């Protein structure tokens, strides 16, 4: 009788747990529908202080706790996979066992989904940086795109010329991350919503692997750490760092993290960061022009200074060196992840920063 009673109580508890989890998902999805409420109550209040707390807890540790957790989670998942597949090969796999395993798997995914959204994911549904800046809506046509392409071409050449003339060297990682924080501090004077408190930016422990999988940085929503792949060409690192810090302050969408990084760079006096941002944005703009007018795109590339061309050549060689058969699959999966999270254009969402930059130029007359 005692065992039967315990089993009955266990079933009742599990039903209540499932009910609570389903209700949490419903609440999250309903709340996410109101972008203004997400912006006001989640991003600017709960998430702002919660993210600072995470950075306070883990930022002082010299290595990435998030990367360690990912490794442990990966080992655990591999062990569970082997353990759960073995009954199939031993012909002990029954429908009842399959149902139990499926229920556990669904339970794990639901927990991850809820935690992910509470910790960071709801930021995908905020109003966003264009709304904060009151930027006008513009027509995304070839003419406006070419204007932006030429402006960025001029800026990337100008900033590179300064770096060469002054013989400015790239700093070490620690100094780079410190200067990135200064960029956000300077930008926050003009844009208070870009305030960044307590730094937590670290080199990824998986940089070499990241080269083959095609990632240059990422944000860990469970520890609040920004990871930078420090093995990429050095001229890319400043903007990558600013981009990941943009994720930390609540810009979940890739184009918004890009624009946050851009604002931080151009509102600072640090030419290294300015050049890195303008170079990346020029590549985005020129790539977009190519879709409409390949001749104009190729012509703009020839107008880059020899030093900028040298950096782009190094960038191409780097990408070619680490070409991997896994990268297309990883890119496809990541593109699907972006589409699920309010970014229907997938990987091309990164390029959408150019549309925001056009609107910014139209309002402020500068880039």
Main sheet, how many strands, which sense, barrel? 3 strands, mixed
Helix content: 55-70%
Overall outline? globular
Tell me the number of strands: 3
- Number of separate domains: 2
Structural class per helix/strand content? Answer: mainly alpha
Write a structural description.
Strand 2 and strand 3 form a beta hairpin. The chain has a three-stranded mixed beta sheet. The chain has helices spanning 2-32, 35-58, 65-89, 95-119, 129-132, 142-165, 173-190, 207-213, 237-248, 254-266, 271-292, 294-302, 306-321, 327-340, 353-364, and strands at 201-203, 217-220, 225-228. Helix 6 (142-165) runs antiparallel to helix 11 (271-292), helix 7 packs across helix 9 and helix 10 (254-266) crosses helix 11. It has 367 residues and is mainly α.
């Amino acid at each position: 009788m005692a065992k039967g009673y315990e089993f009955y109580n266990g079933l009742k508890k599990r039903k209540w747990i499932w009910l609570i989890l389903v209700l949490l998902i419903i609440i999250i999805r309903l709340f996410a529908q109101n972008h203004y409420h997400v912006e006001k109550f989640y991003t600017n209040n709960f998430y702002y202080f919660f993210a600072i707390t995470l950075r306070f807890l883990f930022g002082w540790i010299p290595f990435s706790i998030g990367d360690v957790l990912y490794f442990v989670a990966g080992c655990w998942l591999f062990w569970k996979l082997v353990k759960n597949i073995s009954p199939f090969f031993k012909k002990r796999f029954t429908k009842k066992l399959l149902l139990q395993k499926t229920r556990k798997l669904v339970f794990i995914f639901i927990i991850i989904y809820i935690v992910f959204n509470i910790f960071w994911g709801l930021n995908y549904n905020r109003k966003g940086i264009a709304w904060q800046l009151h930027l006008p809506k513009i027509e995304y046509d070839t003419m406006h795109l070419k204007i932006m392409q030429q402006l960025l071409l001029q800026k990337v050449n100008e900033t590179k010329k300064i770096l060469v003339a002054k013989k400015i060297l790239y700093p070490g990682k620690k100094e780079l991350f410190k200067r990135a924080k200064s960029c956000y501090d300077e930008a926050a004077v003009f844009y208070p919503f870009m305030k960044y408190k307590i730094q937590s930016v670290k080199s990824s422990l998986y940089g070499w692997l990241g080269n083959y999988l095609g990632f240059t940085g990422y944000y860990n929503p469970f520890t609040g750490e920004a990871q930078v792949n420090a093995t990429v060409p050095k001229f890319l690192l400043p903007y990558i760092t600013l981009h990941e810090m943009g994720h930390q302050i609540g810009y979940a969408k890739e184009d918004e993290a890009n624009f946050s990084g851009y604002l931080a760079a151009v509102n600072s006096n640090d030419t290294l960061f300015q050049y890195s941002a303008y170079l990346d944005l020029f590549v985005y703009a020129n790539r977009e022009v190519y879709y409409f007018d390949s001749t104009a795109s190729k012509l703009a590339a020839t107008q880059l200074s020899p030093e900028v061309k040298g950096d782009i050549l190094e960038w191409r060689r780097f990408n070619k060196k680490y070409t991997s058969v896994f990268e297309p699959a990883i890119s496809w999966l990541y593109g699907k992840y972006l589409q699920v999270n309010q970014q229907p254009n997938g990987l091309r969402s990164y390029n959408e920063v150019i549309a925001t930059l056009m609107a910014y130029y139209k309002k402020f007359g500068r880039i």
